[in-house]
Amino acid sequence: MSRIVHFEIQASDPQRAIAFYSGVFGWEFHQWEGGDEDYWLIMTGPDEEPGINGGLARRRGDPPEENASVNCYTCVVQVTDLDATLEKITAEGGVIALPKMPVPGVGWAGYAKDTEGNIFGMMQPDPAAA
Fold it and tell me: Is 42 in contact with 55 (CB distance < 8 Å)?
């Protein structure tokens, strides 16, 4: 069985995307000096905690069209307070794509669009969600 070990965010404006994700989730970005392309490594948390790290790349084409269906993998970020995270998203220039909703027995989910037009999800664990 193969596991997902890395994710990538595509950005037309990498600095804007870095500001967004740093502001919303507190992620750390470090420019990678190992290649010819603009690329940043993303640290999403301490290595001793569960989760994966990723990268941010300059988009090589047009961003997704408005109201286009999702045509890629969607990452879901675990958060401790979904309401506060949704507020941060709009404050940092993102858009709520699907508001807070219960996932019975699991928690509270929501989806947003970042400053680059990418969709991502969030999950606040709560077994009592209904």
Answer: yes
Tokens found for residue 100: 């807070």
Give the global pTM.
0.90
CATH homologous superfamily for the domain 7-60+73-125: 2,3-Dihydroxybiphenyl 1,2-Dioxygenase, domain 1 (3.10.180.10)
CA distances to 1, 21, 111 from 120, rounded to whole Å, are 25, 11, 6
Distance CA 43, CA 40 (A): 10
SS3 percent helix, strand, coil of the chain, rounded to 5, is 15, 35, 50
- In the block, tokens 């995307």 appear at 17
Tens digit of each residue's pLDDT (9 = 90 or more) over 1-28: 888 899 999 999 999 999 999 999 999 9
User: Which residues, listed in sequence order, are joined to residue 97 by a DSSP beta bridge?
Assistant: none
Task: Copy the structure tokens of residue 73.
Answer: 């993998």
